[in-house]
């Protein structure tokens, strides 16, 4: 809002109201603080309204709504008194909330007060009848004041009061009356939302120029237009997943307001900047300015006015909207505007805004009313028809538009644009005419008029100006189809022809955008700046998309209505479209536009009517017949629609067929790339298919569906890898496999998009596990694991994202032959690799493991190609996982070290993996050291200390040595773990478990014993001698651990051990080794008691 100085009081009192509202059963005396600041009734019921009074009333309303109507018996009567005194209210000052605010203060306050009362009526049903009746009386009283003034001799004060207060109050009441929603927050709280929590000021660290910024792993274009995003139930979309959105930019911000309101980066629930700026605006005014929760039934959240009140509103409308009254108030407005008495007065005339707000009010009150008496409906119809025809006469003259533009230019947009308001008023009239139609004959006649309007031949300037009216006409055809299915076929034909004839409006908008030319003299005025700016080509394109999407949405509504009578309406539509496409291809006029509209239309129909029999299947067949027959940009559109059909979960057969098509296209396009075949029919759509797969990966719902898609993508990746390898082998010159990897790498960001939405993959099925092995093999061979600049950086970022949740590449069976069979089961065989390539891989391994122990160097030199690529796969997977995961863990490395096949490999592969583990451990320490020093990191460190303590007692001696080495490294990096309570207690618990194992019969089956108060289990040795040795080793290690802790933090260590003594019940264990260790450690480090020392002789 404007400035902190001006709004300090407003913010303070709203904070107070919200604080009081959060308390239950608060006494009225505390609310008096706010209530006493509100205007109080003076002589003859007159209220003096200043800015602080307005702020206090709004704060009182916020308290009432957010406190769940505490003290409503005190507050509601006061609000109704304010409403009753609206016509006599004295307005002391004129202060704007926003610099760009344009409506009069009296209108703003009337709008806010009645929005509050409507919220109360909606959410507190006991008061509903009383509030509605009071609003009707107020509307009637204000209208009587306006009409009676026409016959009176007016002095300057009366004229000023009418223009500054009475008429604006009437407008504000008409804008807010009857608008309701049950979704939270209430409408008043959307105008004045809760302030956001203050952002914690964190010192900005000096950036390290050596650390590269994290890049996005994808740069895909969304294939989902706004019109389908709601149909697909895309409640949220990770904006980072798809960085380039559709032309309307509505996918990441589904406020349907956006294209009309241009709220920009404002929060969706803060709308005061819009309603205090847009003349005649109201909640739920038009389809494209509707702001209600789509999950709420609009009918149930609408205030249903009794017939008597509806008749009163209609009577008021008839009396106010007469030519005499409108002419009178227009003359008043012009005179007052010229006088310049008010700095917030924006009306050169009142007639246009009165037409709009009254038509919009009638629309809001009547749209969900049913079974009203026929005479009343006829009365509404005749009145609105006259209003509509009068508005059309003015709109078609063209003079009003030129005059309005000139006035806008002169006033810097500070006064009302009469032409735009007239367009909006006519749009509201169309909605009412559709509602008032009660028989098929009337519906047929109205349908004809709507068709004339949407097919009118306007230039680009007129088309953009009439856009709200055209869009409402589109929606009218859809509503008429729903009400009267018998005329749905007529509406279908009209909307079909609008798209594929095409309509002159569509054709001109498309042509304007295509040519990207700015006609001379076609200008708009920038808000607040007196400069001329050409119509933007992007603006024209967005309006074109909006118009096309609206026609397609309503065509789908009409088709669904027609389907109830004619199940073959979709095939009939396809037949007519085939004929139109055939003729369009032979014509040069709008051929590409007709084809594009047809494809987009059918994609929408396939999604919207996916629950009807054979609709998706029929449309898929149509797409297949047209696809790549003659390569063109239309094929890309077809791919986009096919992707939307998969996301919408159309028929399973359709899903299978489309995925088969995508796989075929990707493979054949890849083969063409390898063979440099320029004639391949799929080359121009391979990128579109990858993009569609990315959209599917980002939006497909269901765990089973996502897992199945992952398998398909990995299969396609491996298949492309095999095709590329074959191509490189057939090449006349010996090429590296990486020279054929271009098409293969395109799938990496797609897989990354999907992997990002999945949980970490643990214990996958054998097929998926094998696919991941092959995936990492190809990544190593093709060089995707290095950010060397050879491949796009997005691929490398995608590989890192995949590494975070990829399963470990351990063997899934206990057979020792798996590593020997690796050379036969690998996607790339040993015989297909040259000795130089194998030696290069070995050098790469030794470079990564440098400095490598002698036994590791000797083992690496013996590795086959399959083993070398496997080792590199493990290295890159685990180092990337540890570096990029938010929760780095050493558990995967222990899984490799415990792998039976790796342990039994005779080439020394285990030592190589152990060396990889050392690198991973070093990266783990670095990753943990840069994390915030908070409780979360502490728990992670405790967990890994426990993990290492458990693995210190592993059944394999080599793993014990690794765990011992890493435990020393961990406490060296984080010494406080030495005296950490959980670590010390776990050590004592493990010692007790080991001691207990000595009492078990070694001839029985070797058990796994749970470590108390942890998630770890301990596998015991087979023999009693081995168990004794392990117990002695761990006891010695633990004692040394505690002794070191006593050196660093004796008090804390002693305290934790003493606390441990109290946690062991005396009856549970008569011989508790952990207890003995703790007791011994405490006694050995207890020190001297100087108070009890003997006196010297």
UniProtKB/TrEMBL annotation:
InterPro entries: ARM-type_fold, PI4K_N. Residues 361-785, 788-1064 form the PI4-kinase N-terminal domain. Pfam families: PI4K_N. Belongs to the PI3/PI4-kinase family. Type III PI4K subfamily. This is PI4-kinase N-terminal domain-containing protein.
């Amino acid at each position: 809002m404007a400035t902190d100085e001006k709004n300090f009081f407003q913010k303070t009192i709203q904070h107070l109201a919200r604080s009081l509202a959060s308390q239950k059963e608060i006494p009225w005396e505390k609310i008096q603080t706010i209530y006493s600041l509100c205007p109080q009734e003076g002589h003859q019921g007159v209220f003096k309204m200043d800015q602080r009074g307005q702020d206090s009333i709004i704060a009182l309303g916020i308290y009432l709504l957010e406190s769940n109507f505490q003290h409503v018996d005190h507050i509601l009567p006061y609000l109704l008194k304010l409403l009753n005194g609206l016509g006599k209210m004295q307005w002391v000052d004129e202060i704007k909330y926003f610099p760009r605010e344009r409506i009069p203060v009296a209108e703003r306050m009337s709008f806010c007060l009645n929005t509050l009362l409507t919220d109360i009526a909606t959410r507190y049903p006991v008061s509903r009848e009383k509030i509605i009746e009071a609003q009707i009386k107020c509307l009637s009283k204000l209208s009587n004041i306006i009409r009676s003034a026409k016959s009176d001799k007016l002095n300057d004060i009366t004229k000023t009061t009418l223009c500054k207060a009475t008429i604006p109050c009437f407008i504000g009441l008409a804008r807010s009356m009857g608008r309701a929603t049950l979704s939270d927050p209430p409408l008043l709280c959307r105008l004045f939302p809760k302030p956001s929590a203050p952002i914690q000021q964190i010192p900005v660290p000096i950036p390290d120029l050596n650390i590269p910024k994290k890049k996005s792993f994808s740069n895909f274009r969304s294939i989902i237009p706004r019109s389908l995003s709601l149909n697909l139930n895309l409640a949220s979309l990770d904006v980072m997943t798809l960085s380039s959105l559709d032309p309307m930019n509505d996918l990441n911000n589904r406020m349907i307001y956006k294209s009309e309101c241009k709220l920009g980066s404002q929060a969706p629930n803060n709308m005061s900047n819009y309603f205090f700026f847009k003349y005649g605006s109201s909640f739920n005014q038009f389809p494209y300015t509707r702001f209600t929760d789509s999950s709420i039934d609009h009918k149930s959240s609408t205030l249903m006015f009794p017939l008597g009140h509806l008749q009163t509103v209609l009577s008021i409308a008839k009396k106010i909207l007469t030519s005499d009254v409108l002419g009178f108030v227009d003359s008043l407005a012009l005179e007052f505007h010229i006088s310049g008495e008010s700095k917030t007065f924006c009306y050169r005339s009142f007639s246009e805004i009165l037409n709009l707000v009254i038509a919009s009010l009638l629309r809001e009150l009547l749209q969900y009313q049913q079974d009203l008496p026929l005479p009343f409906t006829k009365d509404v119809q005749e009145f609105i028809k006259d209003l509509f025809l009068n508005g059309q006469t003015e709109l078609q003259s063209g003079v009003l538009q030129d005059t309005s533009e000139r006035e806008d230019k002169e006033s810097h947009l500070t006064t009302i644009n009469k032409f735009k308001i007239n367009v909006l008023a006519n749009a509201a009239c169309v909605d009412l005419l559709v509602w008032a139609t009660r028989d098929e004959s009337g519906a047929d006649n109205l349908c004809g008029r709507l068709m004339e309007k949407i097919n009118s031949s306007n230039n680009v300037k007129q088309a953009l100006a009439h856009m709200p009216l055209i869009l409402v006409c589109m929606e009218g055809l859809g509503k008429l189809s729903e009400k009267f299915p018998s005329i749905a076929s007529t509406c279908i034909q009209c909307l079909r022809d609008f798209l594929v004839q095409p309509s002159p409006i569509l054709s001109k908008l498309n042509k304007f955008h295509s040519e990207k030319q700015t006609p001379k003299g076609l200008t708009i005025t920038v808000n607040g700046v007196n400069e001329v700016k050409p119509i933007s080509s992007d603006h024209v394109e967005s309006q074109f998309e909006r118009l096309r999407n609206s026609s397609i949405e309503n065509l789908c509504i009409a088709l669904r209505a027609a389907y109830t009578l004619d199940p073959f309406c979709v095939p009939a539509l396809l037949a007519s479209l085939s004929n139109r496409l055939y003729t369009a291809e032979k014509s040069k006029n709008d051929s590409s536009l007709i084809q594009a509209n047809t494809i987009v239309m059918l994609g929408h129909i396939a999604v919207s009517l996916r629950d009807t029999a054979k609709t998706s299947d029929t449309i898929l067949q149509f797409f297949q017949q047209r696809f790549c027959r003659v390569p063109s940009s239309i094929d890309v559109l077809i791919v986009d629609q096919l992707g939307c059909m998969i996301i919408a979960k159309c028929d399973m057969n359709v899903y299978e067929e489309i995925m088969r098509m995508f796989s075929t296209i990707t493979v054949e396009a890849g083969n063409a790339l390898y063979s440099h075949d320029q004639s391949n029919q799929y080359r121009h759509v391979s990128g579109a298919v990858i993009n569609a797969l990315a959209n599917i990966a980002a939006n497909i719902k269901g765990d089973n569906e996502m897992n199945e898609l992952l398998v398909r993508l990995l299969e396609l990746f491996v298949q492309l890898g095999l095709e590329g390898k074959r191509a490189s082998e057939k090449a006349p010159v010996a090429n590296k496999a990486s020279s054929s990897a271009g098409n293969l790498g395109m799938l990496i960001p797609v897989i990354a998009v999907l992997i990002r939405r999945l949980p970490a993959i643990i214990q996958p099925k054998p097929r998926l596990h094998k696919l991941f092995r092959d995936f990492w093999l190809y990544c190593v061979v093709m060089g995707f694991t290095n950010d060397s600049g050879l491949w796009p950086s997005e691929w490398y970022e995608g590989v890192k994202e995949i590494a975070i949740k990829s399963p470990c590449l351990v063997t899934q069976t206990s057979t020792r032959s798996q590593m020997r069979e690796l050379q036969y089961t690998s996607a790339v065989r040993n015989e297909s690799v040259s000795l130089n390539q194998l030696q290069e891989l070995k050098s790469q391994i030794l470079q990564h493991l440098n400095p490598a122990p002698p036994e590791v160097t000797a083992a690496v030199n013996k590795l086959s190609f399959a083993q070398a690529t496997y080792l590199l796969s493990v290295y890159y997977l685990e180092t990337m996982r540890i570096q990029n995961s938010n929760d780095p863990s050493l558990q995967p490395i222990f899984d490799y070290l415990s792998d039976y096949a790796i342990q039994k490999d005779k080439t020394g592969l285990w030592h190589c993996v152990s060396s990889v583990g050392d690198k991973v451990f070093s990266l783990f320490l670095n990753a943990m050291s840069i994390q915030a020093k908070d409780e979360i990191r502490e728990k992670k460190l405790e967990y890994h200390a426990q993990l290492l303590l458990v693995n210190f007692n592993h059944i394999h001696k080599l793993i014990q040595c690794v765990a011992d080495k890493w435990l020393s490294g961990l406490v060296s990096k984080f010494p406080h773990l030495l005296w950490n309570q959980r670590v010390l207690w776990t050590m004592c618990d493990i010692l007790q478990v080991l001691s207990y194992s000595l009492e078990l019969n070694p001839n029985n089956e070797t058990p796994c014993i749970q470590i108390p108060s942890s998630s770890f289990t301990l596998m015991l040795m087979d023999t009693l001698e081995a168990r004794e040795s392990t117990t002695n080793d761990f006891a010695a290690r633990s004692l040394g651990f505690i002794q070191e802790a006593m050196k660093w933090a004796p008090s804390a260590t002693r305290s934790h051990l003493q606390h441990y003594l109290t946690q062991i019940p005396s009856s549970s264990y008569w011989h508790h080794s952990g207890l003995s260790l703790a007791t011994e450690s405490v006694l050995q480090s207890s020190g001297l008691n100087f108070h009890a020392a003997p006196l010297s002789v």
